[in-house]
Amino acid sequence: MMLKLGNMIGQTLMDKTAKLLAHALDYRSKRHGVIAGNLANIDTPGYKAKDLGFDETLKAALDNSKLKLKVTQPEHFPALTGVSLLGGAEFPVEEIGQDISGDSQLDLDREMARMAKNNLLYEATVRLLSKKFEELKTVIEEGRR
User: Fold this and answer.
1) Is residue 38 in some structural domain?
2) Which of 88, 92, 111, 131 pairs as cysteine with 53 (C-beta 3.0–4.6 A)?
3) Is residue 126 part of a domain?
């Protein structure tokens, strides 16, 4: 019985957070590859910068979501449509409309800034996931005492 309860707690608490963070890492990794492709093609005539279609995927998930938040106290934030990001959404690669070829140094700088921001967000997500596993380790060690 104790093992069954432990599994339920692990699946409901740890798994959702870990899966969400894993999906975030996957997204950041894929986005890194797309931005790297933009940088690799910076001198290609007519090349249009690409990015992952996260905004459209999020909007579609919000529009189709069945989960609704409810305000129970006046101090709460306004209720927004909830969304589950654990479904393994695909992020389509799409052109973002800017021609990054030519001698425009600003375009190179913009892509490098996007890469740096993505790297920082990746590292922050790794730290969050690491903290989750540290918490789990602490719980396990305390349970042994």
Assistant:
1) yes
2) 92
3) yes
> Do 131 and 52 form a contact (C-beta atoms < 8 A)?
no
Number of domains the chain contains: 1
Tell me what the mean pLDDT of segment 91-100 comes to.
66
Domain that holds residue 120: 23-44+101-145
**Contact assessment for residue 65 and residue 82, using Cβ atoms and an 8 Å cutoff:** yes
In sequence order, what are the residues at sequence separation of 6 or more whose Cβ sits closer than 8 angstroms to the Cβ of residue 29? 122
In a domain, 134, yes or no: yes
Q: What is the pTM of this model?
A: 0.63
Is 140 a domain residue? yes
The per-residue pLDDT for range 44-79, each reduced to its tens digit, is 888 888 888 766 665 665 566 555 556 676 665 554
First to last CA, the chain: 20
Pairing of strands 48-52, 93-99: antiparallel
Is residue 119 scored above 90 in pLDDT?
yes
Amino acid identity of residue 61, one-letter, is A
Mean pLDDT of 29-55: 88
